[in-house]
Specification:
By secondary structure, this protein is mostly helical. The protein has one domain. It contains seven helices and no strands. The two termini are about 20 Å apart.
């Protein structure tokens, strides 16, 4: 999924059409599902013996993704049921998640994930602008968690240690 110039895919461009087909109030729940998928990806990277030096940091990233999902899901009664329905209606979410990363070297995968973390932070901040109270604070906290993982991934790419 690189473009004609060999650049990494634009995650925002790929996700936007999917999110546009989801009712605005349920978009955070769909994004929370993507956070859980990212957590699984981090755990997979951490389990790879080649990544043993960064295992604890990758697991910390996975924990942040899970925390984001938990916080967002806590805002919705019957979140699990709504999420099952969202996935049933939008199976392309899981397909996109697989296709974005499949067959790529680790450094590219980490670069894509870092972009996804930055996009997530921007998305949560955008949602916070339209929210109030607990929901607003939850989204702002999620943005902060996303940025922590982005900073870590970007440091790996800068160091060339991915």
């Amino acid at each position: 999924m690189t473009d004609a110039t060999g650049r990494l895919p634009n995650v925002a461009e790929l996700l936007a059409p999917i999110l546009e087909r989801v009712a605005a109030p349920h978009r955070p729940l769909l994004i929370a599902l993507a956070e859980r998928m990212a957590a699984a990806r981090y755990r997979g990277w951490a389990a790879d013996p080649a990544n043993r030096r960064r295992r604890s940091d990758l697991l910390a990233c996975a924990d942040r993704e899970e925390e984001i999902a938990r916080r967002v899901e806590s805002l919705f009664p019957a979140a699990a049921s709504l999420q099952r329905d969202l996935l049933a209606r939008h199976p392309e979410v899981e397909a996109l998640d697989r296709e974005l990363f499949a067959g790529r070297p680790l450094q590219e995968q980490l670069g894509i994930q870092a972009r996804g973390e930055r996009l997530g932070a921007a998305t949560w901040r955008s949602l916070a602008k339209r929210a109030e109270g607990v929901e607003r604070q939850t989204f702002l906290d999620c943005a902060r968690l996303e940025e922590e993982s982005a900073v870590y991934l970007e440091s790996l790419n800068r160091a060339g240690s991915a």
